[in-house]
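subagent[fold] <- orchestrator: predict structure for attached chain, return tokens only, no commentary.
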Amino acid sequence: MLKEITTAEYEALDKKGPYLLEFYSKTCGPCKMLAFVLKDVDKADPSLPIYQAEFNENEELKNSLGVSGFPTLLFMRDGKEVTRLEGLKQKPVILAEIAKLKG
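subagent[fold] -> orchestrator:
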């Protein structure tokens, strides 16, 4: 499940279990490429929620999670960060981190 969210929506989420949170910018080339990769990841594992937050529109959320650049992927479990990947990553790298997250 791929879903765009705001800081308020993130705060209201049921954060039980594993999920992926991506910070991106609408003007960032690598972020646009990563969007295609995440669509493939979502098809490969539709059971994992993938949330996307626009970097510049979610100051409070990015600051509370210590995100300073984009694209940034946060692999989360029960509301806590397990792993962080920064920059454009390919599908096999992301799927490997998801396997660890779910493991």
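orchestrator: received. Logging for downstream: Residues 29-44 form the longest helix (16 residues). The mean pLDDT is 95.
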